[in-house]
Write a structure and sequence with these properties.
The complex is a heterodimer of chains A (about 550) and B (about 170). The radius of gyration of chain A is 40 Å and the shape is elongated. In chain A, helix 2 packs antiparallel against helix 4, helix 4 packs antiparallel against helix 7 and helix 6 packs across helix 9. Chain A is an alpha+beta fold and about 550 residues long. Chain A has nine helices and 22 strands. With about 170 residues, chain B is an alpha/beta fold. Chain B folds into two domains: about 30 residues; about 120 residues, Glutaredoxin. Chain B has a seven-stranded mixed sheet. In chain B, helix 3 links the parallel strand 4 and strand 5. The longest helix of chain B is centred in the N-terminal third of the chain and has 27 residues. The relative contact order of chain B is 0.19. Classes of the chains: A alpha+beta (about 550), B alpha/beta (about 170). The interface between A and B is large, with 54 and 49 residues. Chain B: This is Peroxiredoxin. Chain B: GO terms for molecular function: antioxidant activity; oxidoreductase activity.
């Protein structure tokens, strides 16, 4: 006899566990009740088990296996863990300009294991081709596993089977069987049961001699809903690689400076920066801060410009203001999909040196103020009265070079040295002097001009994180769908109760995908209220 | 659903997932699509010249260009400058331009330095480091050898000597 043909006459696809028509278990003898098939997919054949002839079907079947899916997840977990043993390339603490330097770093720092780590590509694990492939395979498995199970499940649940085979009912974890009570009528009993169950929120499907009550069917869609959420999430992550979808840059902007934002046509100006502190009167209790302060807010007043001349990088920008306002921590400046976050500050940095030029041979008479902007020192300043000041040389971060000549360590004014020339009397008088580390050295032993050091200009440099992430709405939406799916599957249960008359017996069976205790209570309530002479047996496994 | 329909749907679903895989792999291999690469056109830019008008890279089409990113604080850059100057003197009549891009320093700092080393090839001031970022400059000196039609022939990170420059320049002369 064709194995797929049930005794009720229905032909089932290969792989079917419970007959699609009458619910009788196929292929196996139900002698031992514990061998009753799993109810997880209603005993339907997974679609992948149906045909396996073509290559495409074999690929499909491979991805359809939950064992394979778990395997992929385990490999991803192990891979991710291994990626944390040694630092990823981007976190190497020393400069490694070339690929050879990267390789050398791993070998020299971690020895043989480091070499292997590098050779296998673990130093760039999370963007390596094989890790990305695994993630896409996981996505594929998610899609195919879901499709393969949700469609048969949907078909099975869409047409509730009323006249189940006796062995189907017997195979359920909750089952009771007993003779018809004396003088009772089938239709009355069924109507009574239907009423009781309806009150409990069940949907009733019935014929003249059978009844099925069902509630919470939608909770069966929970896992598939959360898979959809996960897939949307993965698509969102993948979308970040599309040019223009994602950027994460950092710019330092001095007060008064306008800076280009890399890879965008935008410029940002730092109008002013200030940190606000809590005053003592605002504090709920007296704190001993030992002279310290607690910051209240970090704020940059900024202007965002669009450069109309962005086609040629470096060319003089043609700026149009598009937005202005404060940027405070957690309250970024927004323009289209660009976000500017307050995320760093260097306060009280040297911006400019100030000097008073004095005439030492004339009672230290003040001749004027000299300002040396340390980011762009002026070549020449005119102080009036025929006095000019030239900047001869400038080392922003002074160090004495190996050749005995002054040099600079960086291009930032951390330790500025400035050489100035004072020219007076139409060039007849020329005196040179050098400012370094808070003192002025003059060339002549008995100079006419002197410099009085005044308070330097101190500026704040704000650190702005510029981000663009167009995939965020999709990632949030995916996460939201995921949560809905989890809630559906967690907080509701799919409960079914069958009441059936076969010959002179009444049979009752119940099934739920979780919370058997809740179902048991409802079944007990049903028996009590309909006064059916049944004792429910609860099996340990079904 | 019949058999051929099912195969059709499976091919479509797997095809779609394959496209996703190809895209994911492509973006894992090409991490920075805007990076300057050998064989690709050098991105055009314009910068202010030290003691001169603005200069655009496109102005130098038809000449071999040695684009050298440097700073006065960088020792190997200092050691390399005379070699660059020497090669510039030797090949400038044969269509070579050496362009030094100074990274984020002021005129007052750069000018005496350039004078001290006797450099007379064009020096561009990248005061906001915009071009430095555009060319993804990490450690300096970094030197780009650009052919007369504007393509990057070679990128070299580190200090060059005369022989190395001569050998590389021979490939980009018009």
């Amino acid at each position: 006899m064709d194995q797929r043909k049930c005794e009720c006459g229905h032909t089932n696809p290969i792989g079917t566990l419970l007959c699609e028509s009458c619910g009788k278990p196929l292929d196996i003898e139900i002698e031992e009740q514990t061998a009753f098939p799993d109810m997880r997919y209603e005993g339907m054949a997974r679609r992948s088990q149906t045909y396996t002839k073509k290559v495409i079907d074999r690929v499909w079947n491979w991805f359809s296996s939950v064992k394979i899916a778990i395997g992929i997840i385990i490999v991803i977990l192990i891979g991710s863990a291994v990626g944390t043993i040694f630092p990823q390339q981007q976190y190497i603490p020393v400069p490694v300009p070339t690929e050879a330097d990267v390789a050398r770093f791993y070998t020299e720092t971690y020895g043989k294991l480091g070499t292997i780590y590098y050779e296998l590509g673990f130093h760039n694990l999370y963007s390596s081709w094989w890790f990305v492939t695994l993630l896409v395979m996981l996505g594929t498995s998610l899609v195919i596993c879901s499709l393969d199970r949700v469609i048969p499940l949907y078909k099975a649940l869409k047409k509730p089977r009323l006249n189940q085979h006796k062995s189907f009912l017997k195979g359920q974890k909750l089952f009771a069987e007993g003779p018809m009570p004396e003088g009772a009528k089938q239709d009355e009993l069924l109507a009574n049961a239907a009423q009781v169950l309806r009150k409990k929120g069940y949907r009733i499907f019935s014929t003249d001699r059978a009844l099925m009550a069902e509630k919470g069917r939608f909770s069966r869609w929970g896992p598939y809903t959360n898979h959809i959420g996960l897939i949307l999430f993965l698509i969102g992550v993948l979308m970040r690689s599309i040019p223009g979808f994602f950027m994460d840059e950092y710019v330092w902007v001095r007060e008064g400076q306008t800076v280009a934002i890399p890879d965008t046509p935008y410029y940002v100006k730092n109008v002013s920066y200030h940190t606000e502190y809590w005053s003592e009167s605002e504090m709920p209790e007296k704190l001993d801060l030992k002279g310290g302060v607690i910051p209240k807010s970090f704020q940059t007043d900024a202007i965002l410009y669009l450069n109309k001349n962005a086609d040629l990088p470096g060319a003089k920008p043609d700026l149009i203001e598009v937005k202005s306002g404060p940027i405070v921590v957690n309250h970024p400046m927004e323009h289209e999909s660009l976000y500017l976050y307050q995320s760093g500050v260097q306060e009280m940095q040297l911006g400019a040196l100030n000097f008073n030029l004095i005439d030492q041979k004339n009672g230290n008479k003040e001749l004027g103020l000299i300002k040396v902007d340390l980011y762009d020192p002026p070549k020449e300043q005119d102080l009036g009265n025929g006095i000019k000041v030239r900047t001869l040389d400038y080392f922003p971060d002074f160090i004495m070079g190996a050749d005995g000549k002054p040099a600079t360590q960086t291009n930032l004014p951390k330790n500025p040295m400035v050489a100035l020339e004072i020219i007076a009397d139409n060039g007849k008088i020329s005196e040179k002097m050098v400012y370094l580390q808070g003192s002025v050295i003059t060339q002549k032993t008995d100079p006419q001009f002197g410099l009085v050091i005044r308070k330097p200009d101190l500026i704040d440099i704000t650190g702005l994180n510029v981000r663009k992430d167009k995939a965020v709405p999709l990632i949030y939406f995916g996460s939201f769908i995921f949560m809905i799916g989890v809630a559906m599957g967690f907080f509701w249960q799919h409960r079914r109760i069958w009441v059936q008359f076969q010959e002179d017996d009444v049979m009752l069976a119940g099934h739920t995908n979780k919370n058997w205790f809740g179902l048991r209570r409802e079944v007990d309530g049903l028996i009590e209220q309909t006064k059916l002479p049944l004792t429910v047996e609860e099996k340990s496994k079904a | 659903m019949n058999k051929s329909n099912r195969t059709y749907i499976r091919v479509a679903v797997l095809g779609l997932l394959l496209v996703a895989l190809v895209f994911a792999l492509y973006s894992s291999f090409v991490k920075d699509p805007n990076a300057v690469k050998v064989g690709k056109a050098a991105p055009n830019f314009s910068l202010q010249q030290l003691n001169g008008p603005d200069m655009a890279l496109s102005d130098l089409k038809g000449k071999g260009v040695v684009l050298n990113f440097w700073g006065t604080w960088c020792e190997p850059c200092k050691k390399e400058l005379p070699a660059l100057q020497q090669q510039y003197d030797q090949f400038k009549d044969k269509g070579l331009v050496v362009v030094g891009v100074n990274i984020g320093e002021s005129t007052v700092a750069v000018e005496p330095f350039v004078k001290q080393f006797g450099v007379n090839f064009p020096i561009l001031l990248d005061s906001q480091s915009q071009i430095t970022k555009l060319y993804r400059i990490g450690p300096i000196p970094t030197t780009f050898f650009i052919s007369p039609d504007g393509d990057v022939e070679e990128i070299f990170i580190g200090q060059l000597n005369e022989a190395m420059i001569a050998q590389k320049v021979s490939k980009i002369l018009p």
